Amino acid sequence: MERHDVTRFYEDSDGPSLSSKTEEEEKSLKFGFGWCSPNWMQWIHNAKWLLLFLGAISFIQQLAVNALFPVGLSTLERQFSLTSTHTGIISSWYDFAVLLVVFPICHFGRTAHKGRWIGLGGLVMAAGSLVCALPHFIIEPYDPSHEHVKNSTDIGQCDASLDPLRSAEASECPPVPTKFDVFANYNNKYFLLFLLGQSLHGIGSTPLFSIGTAYIDENVSQTASPLYLAIHGVISSFGPVIGLFSGGFLLRFYVDFDRVETVPLDRMDPRWIGAWWVGFVGAGITMLFASLPILGFARELPEAKAHRLKDVNQANAASHEAAKKLEQEEDNSLRATIKIVWTMLHNQTFIILMIIGIAESVIVNGFSAFMPKILETILSVSPAVGSYMASVVIFAAATGLLFGGWIIRHLKMQVSPISLFTSFLPLQVGGMFKFTIICEIASLLFLCNFLISCPPRQFAGINVGYDLEPVRSVNLSSSCNADCACTKEWNPVCDAEKGVMFFSACSAGCRKKVEENGTLSVKWEDCECLSYGQSDYDPSQTLTSEYCKTDCGYNLVFFMVLLFFAVVATFAAAIPQQQMMLRVVPFDQRTIAIGVNWTFLRLFGFIPGGILFGWIIDKSCLHWGEKCGVATNCLVYDPRKQAIIILALAIVCKLVATLACIFGYITYTPTDSDQAASLATVDSHGPLSLMVNDDRLPEEHHKETRY
């Protein structure tokens, strides 16, 4: 059975013995910062502590990018007049930044000090989080009633006498951009600041998730790698969990609590904007301190060479033969790297794995960016509740990662199916491809939960008429508010008795505002549109400034349970796919393989995924907000249309991934190491001890080698 040639990385002119290290070599394997590497600090210089510190940085990165942004999407759209396409671009811009730098980082980081690159990347991410919080400090304090500040008598009521004043205020708007100004909607300075912050997030996180994966893989044994990477994935996945909970909690505080003396709105008011920016400030400061320990790790851990001597090459046969030819060119130049990439692009299994990853990344990035908002729309819940419910998805992802890593370890999976007819494991073991196929089919079936939905909120004049009959187009005007001189300001009110909402108190024909003492709750009386097409109405009946509550019943539970298992199945296949990506290329080309894979995933998967989901959400919009004749953010969505379009996209992506898996399973050509028996040998100690493939004969099996 073939082992890796480690001499290309660890040259030793005195011989291969691990005990013949020079004093200089031993010093290079110490934890420290430059000349400061005392012996008392070396107790943390091992794989477990490396895993912990890398996990901490990944945790904060996931919290900032995959939790704080998704939780705050609805809030950002309202405060900064952004569409879902805008926020989709912001989400995908992170991946665009990754795409720009991933290949150079993988090329130079292949032989560079990976720990230092990851630590410096963490500092860049810290700057990105602080830039994302910057819009809060440069925008004027949020005023939910900004259109009425010049007229104290105008409180949004139905009053025909206010028509001249409201018309005069509308005439003060700047000229509306012409349709030929394609950049009119994208020159928002706050939008550009978020793009800058996401650019720094993407650039800074690229070393962590490209050479960081190789950094772990190179410093642990080959079969310990799946569990270490699974644990790293689980630690990372808790970032979005904590981020969703903390982000939802922060939305309970008013956005300008640091700049106003009194809060002007009740938390239940649909115009409420929470303190989205606090999370970014906290993430930036925490990342700054979390990045420092990684800078102290050496190029490799002291036990790395011992693991390399025992690892087995599972590269695809064709790629393996091409790699042998490249070994004759001991050159780290760009020309040699291009040759390696060219060889990988002729590795059929590698290409298939990238296709699978692209199909999955479209869905994963779309859901990770918009899951709180999707749940908010489909299940008719508030942004804070949507963020809490989205945390269930993160728990499911962590469960899937652990399950996938455990399956590989427990069944000792290789890339292709292996028949083990030995006394050590007398059963038929399916390969990673087969396990991935099962997971893809299972997740496809569970995603049918999008056929389940909660009753949508009824908005008079938008999705139902003022007589509660179905409508085909939006029309906020009716005989009950014809003499109200209403503006297009969004200030929704709810008729709790009928479960019907109105665009504003004015559009409901309300003439009297009632404020309860000691609370910020606002109620309206004398609302003519409460007649609902009848001849009379009760003037004492009230409307409240809040969203109407909907009764979803068990549909909500069924939806979330099926979504949980769909995510578990999706992420259970992630670890096998990652392991196959590392195993079907030669050992010394793993870093470049990760870079090539990330490049294609970002270019054709993550970037289109976020923008596509944003476009889908905008397409399901029933009514847009308007300011000075320009559409701002969507105010009312069609949840049924949104769910069907998302389900159709998910089915297409899952079918592509499943068919690619089947094709890869059929066509994979293993090397001799894939066809050999797996014999047990102890590779490490403690709770993370795992089994590795060995090339000894059965009678030699009792002679264990410990490190």
**Percent strand:** 5-15%
Structural class: mainly alpha
First and last CA, distance: 21 Å
Strand order, largest beta sheet: 3-5-4
Number of helices: 20
Number of strands: 10
Order of helices and strands: HHHHHHHHHHHHHHEEHEEEEEEHHHEEHH
Shape: elongated
The average pLDDT value, as a whole number, equals 75
Largest sheet: 3 strands, mixed
Give the helix level as a range of percent: 40-55%
Low-confidence stretches: 1-21, 146-150, 176-184, 417-430, 673-707
- Global Rg: 29 Å
Region (Disordered): 1-21
GO molecular function: sodium-independent organic anion transmembrane transporter activity
Keywords: Cell membrane, Disulfide bond, Ion transport, Membrane, Transmembrane, Transmembrane helix, Transport
Subcellular location: Cell membrane
Tell me about this structure.
- The chain has 707 residues and is mainly α.
- Helix content is 52%, strand content 6%.
- The protein contains 20 helices and ten strands.
- The chain has helices spanning 23-28, 47-80, 84-109, 114-138, 163-171, 189-209, 211-219, 225-250, 277-290, 304-310, 317-326, 334-344, 348-378, 383-411, 432-446, 554-572, 574-583, 590-619, 639-667, 672-675, and strands spanning 418-420, 427-429, 458-459, 493-495, 500-502, 510-515, 522-527, 543-544, 621-627, 630-637.
- The strands form four sheets. A three-stranded mixed beta sheet has the order 3-5-4, with no helix packed on it. Strands 6-7-8 form a three-stranded antiparallel beta sheet, with no helix packed on it.
- It is elongated.
- It is a multi-pass membrane protein.
- InterPro entries: Kazal_dom, Kazal_dom_sf, MFS_trans_sf, OATP.
